[in-house]
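Q: I have 694 residues here and want to know how they pack in 3D. Can you give me a structure?
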Amino acid sequence: MSSKRNQNIPGNVIKFILLAVLCLICYGSHLDGEFVFDDTVAIVKNWDVTGRTSLGEIFRHDFWGYNITDTSSHKSYRPLTILTFRLEHNLYGLYAFRMKGVNLFLHILDTWLIIPFWRSYFPSGEDQWVAFGTAAMFAIHPIHTEAVSGIVGRAELLVACTFLLSLILYNTQIAQKSSATVLAYLGFIFLASLGLLFKENGITISLMAIATEVILNTNLLQKLRDLEIPLNFPKRVFARICILLGVCSALCVFRLWIMEFQSPNFKVMDNPVAASDEILTKSLSQVYLYALNYWIMLCPDWLSFDWALGSISLVESFLDIRCVFIVIFCAFLLGIIWTSIPSKQQLLAISLIVVPFLPACGIIKLGFVIAERVLYLSSIGHCFLVILGVRKLLYNFPGARKFIAAVLIVSAMIFVARTRVRAKEWTTEELLFSSALRVCPNNAKVHYNIARLATDRGQKEKAFKFYHQAIELFPDYESAIMNLGNLYREIGEFQKAEELLLRSVELLEEFPAAWMNLGIVQAALKKYNQSLESYQKALKYRKHYPMCLYNIGNLFIEMRNTSMAHQFWSEAIALNPRHGKAWANILALLDNEGQTEEVVRMSAIALQHIPNDPAIFFTRANAFGKLGDFQESERLFLRAIELRPNYAMYYANLGVLYHRWRRHSQAEEYYRKALKVDPNLRSVRENLSKLKKK
């Protein structure tokens, strides 16, 4: 027996190498991307990842870094996934290439685990080729691109890993043993708990083990088809199912306890199906979503980073043409289940599709319509079902084997090509958002994201166009209305900006960012009292809001109340010690008040938090110049210039320092450098003229 196993080792190694190569072909050439879409919020701007919160707080926060008990939290609890991001940040910093590489490695690992996973159920030699074919299809399936190429998709990859490992352990050490050890059960519970802490759908690990018991160790499903046969439900199987139900229940209670048994609050725009009050509309629309989910898994051409808003309209009556697809899907599903009852392998494949999808099936209110990443686990069952079907075709039609093989090869090549294209689209937000227009042209969120990206790049005309299109598609899109208002503010149309921002908070009163931006506009319009009220509303709905506190400080400067301005800027820094603008304003205020030594002291503290901020080096350099420490001032000016080489004032002030220091040749050099960057600096020309007279 051992010699036979040893003979299989080279073959298994070759299989694993081939699977890794397939994964690398699909994703390896497109790791050089950037942080896109949810990566920015969940990773780049998440204090739990960047180390500005304690490790303990990670276990009290949701996936996006907010307190999970807050009413605004989406209740997504994935602390162990966040810990992997935190570890990478601490070791290497935020480097998208490396983080995408880790995701690819995890995808390869998940692909490898499919072989021992299937072997733990069906150890025959013929079944190993089913496992390899499934793993190969899983490796190249385009539906996985979001999970692999989107860095936040790591949650799917990690939970898939624990899902497969825990069921391998369960099958080999518990289900196939006459009496399992306590250690085996503890190992399974540990892995199931890890899965839940990686992502919510880890709760399905215990449910899948129950499905395994029913399919493999009882004839319950066969009896449902033929009521005349006696039921075979061994007591030891019943006992194991009871234990599994206990584990699942305990994990559910723990998960609900973490979020204080509160339900998440989602907007209608996030998931119109879940928000619908009509039973018929909700039921038909939900089943249509099931059909669409399976269609994009079967034919992964329609792929989009988001399916919200106008992507999929509700199915409101039986007269909707889409009911035809609902009927076809239901008939297909029932037919597959009914004909699969005699085959434990096919039943297992179906359960692998259905069970991992249960958290996303609509029983629990979700914040999305369709999300391709949640199909990562379910696609394992789909791949098994396809390969089992291919095996049956090869067996029933031996004369068509070459044709079937040719179809498989062509299909695989199409899948690889599609995955490579899709992976490329996930390298930049511009490619990702543009690709969604083909699939979901009526999705206001797609237009919104294109506009947001254009704003960040200074493409205001394009931003105006797409924000208006987003609002036209969804008139109550408060975020798009707010951002459009901000655009009008940037071009100085404050009245129009105020109208839009008032509309935004009218649509969603608990919208702190909109209230803050409204306060900024009202301050620009000299409506100081209204501005302060708006800022206070923002703080009401977001207690810890450093940017809002910073803007209140700016408001008090406008009102010539420097002490209050200093107070609010200090509060902003207390909440966010890396708030560069607040530090700069405090230092400028102290400098204007002649508190030069305090500027030196405070700037030293600021540099501990933001050690590469050129503005702080510049202010600190000026302070040392005023104190007569020209050498230290020179060093600080040069550091500021090194960090921001295209800012004329840094060169100009270093020129002034050299002028005062009587180092005239260097003063002239830096005056000329300042004028090269900005030829319109009159004070520099005057200083240069004075220098030449000496």
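Q: Anything worth noting?
A: Residues 570 and 589 are 12 Å apart (CA to CA). Residues 2-27 form the longest helix (26 residues).
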